[in-house]
């Protein structure tokens, strides 16, 4: 498989990630820098959507917000309020965390009920379900994928980052078992061109990374 | 100070993603038996914790916009109201550190006004997490000023979300906050406090609450 710069660049969700508590200006600076690249999207926490949607949309680019992030622990009503605000502020896609506590407690009906309104809310826009692969057994990872497929969610997002590293095996597990029924976005630990290529070869359709510029620029080096 | 007195300082905390209901139930049973001040859990675990702690002297404490604090005021207020509806008695709100550092104090004012009012109306107290490891001294003082302006009950040093933070909470953080708030305002030290010695040093410096995951070991070490 010959993975090109373009193959990598066009599937990256570019995240500021590494900077804790950036100022509004620092976030906007980062967002403006992403305009020089052909990333799939730029990814921020909900608060920053409002301040950056216009910058990206004016350039024909898309913005993603995370929901119930990064601990998977918000209540249903709070998640919904957060998602509605993000969409009103201009988010084009949402990465919504599954309630892993409910999942681990065997309350699968609740897990589905919790997620279902988000599918409706998206009206065809892309939603990704963050299922926390690193927190789950292999059987649990497959079960989470089945739930997403049943609900019509097009994308799984492996992890949140913040120390949770996604492995090649986690990506392959989903692709081997579900093929084209669901796409996989890798999040957590992708920092180099080589990491990104390995994930694409394993079947990843998107990559979230806080090293987007470094990864893409290194193809020219 | 004896063990029973020390236990009343402790917010016994488990904020790991994916805790099962069974785990949280046992965690709360244990906290109740030890008479800790509260159990601090993620909002989706409030019903589970409330079931165990109802009527006991250990309160249900939860975290809002945790750990990043990057939500619009309206979202934080909605999350707080839902937490109160489900049975939260103490609200640990993560301040929008980005807004503070951007000198958008109007945003911090708005989130504090809404969260404090909703909580006090429901008979709950509010702790404002200001995230000292990410602030300058002047910003810590400013955050305390905003907390006082809005009647926050307790100023809390940090989320303790170590994957994001350059350091733990320090005794110096506690001393600076103590100087910057009224003597009657509470002060919760949290973030990297694991031993009895750590805990006593924080209390000596002016803390009135301690957030810790090892509450039992801390008390037993006295």
Which labels suit this protein?
heterodimer, A: 221 residues, alpha/beta, TIM Barrel, eight-stranded parallel β-barrel, 8 strands, B: 222 residues, eight-stranded parallel beta barrel, 45% helix, globular
Mean pLDDT of chain B: 98
| CATH fourth-tier homologous superfamily of chain B | Aldolase class I
CATH architecture of chain B: Alpha-Beta Barrel
Structural class of chain A: alpha/beta
Strand order of the largest sheet of chain B: 1-2-3-4-5-6-7-8
Describe the structure in your own words:
The complex is a heterodimer of chains A (221) and B (222). With 221 residues, chain A is α/β, with parallel strands linked by helices. Chain A is built from ten helices and eight strands. Chain A has an eight-stranded parallel barrel with strand order 1-2-3-4-5-6-7-8, surrounded by five helices. With 222 residues, chain B is an alpha/beta fold. Chain B has one domain: Aldolase class I (TIM Barrel, Alpha-Beta Barrel), CATH 3.20.20. Chain B contains ten helices and eight strands. In chain B, strands 1-2-3-4-5-6-7-8 form an eight-stranded parallel barrel, surrounded by six helices. Chain B is globular, with a radius of gyration of 16 Å. Chains A and B meet through helix 2, helix 4 and helix 5 of A and helix 2, helix 4 and helix 5 of B.
């Amino acid at each position: 498989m010959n993975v090109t710069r373009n193959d990598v660049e066009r599937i990256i969700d570019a995240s500021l990630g590494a900077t804790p508590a950036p100022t509004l200006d620092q976030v906007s600076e980062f967002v403006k820098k992403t305009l020089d690249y052909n990333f799939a999207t730029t990814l921020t926490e909900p608060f920053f959507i409002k301040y950056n949607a216009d910058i990206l949309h004016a350039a024909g680019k898309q913005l993603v917000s995370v929901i119930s992030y990064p601990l998977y622990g918000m209540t249903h009503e709070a998640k919904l309020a957060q998602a509605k605000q993000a969409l009103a502020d201009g988010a084009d896609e949402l990465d919504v965390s599954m309630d892993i506590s409910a999942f681990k407690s065997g309350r699968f009906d609740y897990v589905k009920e919790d997620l279902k309104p988000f599918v409706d809310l998206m009206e065809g826009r892309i939603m990704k379900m963050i299922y926390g692969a690193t927190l789950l057994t292999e059987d649990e990872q497959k079960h989470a994928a089945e739930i997403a497929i049943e609900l019509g969610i097009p994308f799984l997002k492996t992890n949140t980052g913040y120390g949770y590293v996604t492995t090649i095996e986690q990506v392959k597990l989903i692709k081997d078992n579900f093929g084209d029924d669901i796409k996989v976005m890798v999040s957590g630990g992708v920092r180099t061109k080589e990491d990104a290529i390995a994930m694409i070869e394993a079947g990843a359709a998107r990559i979230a990374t806080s090293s987007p510029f470094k990864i893409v620029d290194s193809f020219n080096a | 100070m004896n063990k029973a007195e020390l236990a009343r300082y402790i917010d016994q905390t488990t904020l790991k993603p994916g805790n099962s209901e069974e785990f949280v139930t046992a965690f709360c049973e244990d906290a109740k038996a030890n008479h800790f001040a509260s159990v601090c859990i993620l909002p989706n675990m409030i019903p589970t914790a409330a079931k165990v702690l109802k009527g006991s002297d250990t309160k249900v404490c939860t975290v809002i916009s945790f750990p990043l604090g990057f939500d619009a005021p309206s979202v934080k207020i909605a999350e707080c109201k839902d937490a109160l509806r489900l049975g939260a008695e103490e609200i640990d709100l993560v301040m929008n550190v980005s807004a503070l550092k951007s000198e958008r104090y109007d945003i911090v004012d708005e989130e504090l006004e809404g969260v404090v009012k909703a909580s006090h109306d429901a008979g709950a107290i509010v702790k404002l997490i200001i995230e000292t490891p990410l602030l300058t001294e002047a910003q810590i003082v400013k955050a305390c000023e905003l907390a006082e302006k809005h009647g926050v009950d307790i100023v809390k040093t940090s989320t303790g979300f170590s994957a994001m933070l350059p350091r733990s909470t320090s005794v110096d953080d506690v001393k600076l906050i103590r100087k910057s708030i009224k003597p009657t305002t509470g002060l919760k030290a949290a973030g990297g406090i694991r031993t009895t010695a750590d805990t006593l040093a924080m209390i000596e410096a002016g803390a009135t609450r301690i957030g810790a995951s090892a509450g039992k070991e801390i008390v037993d070490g006295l």
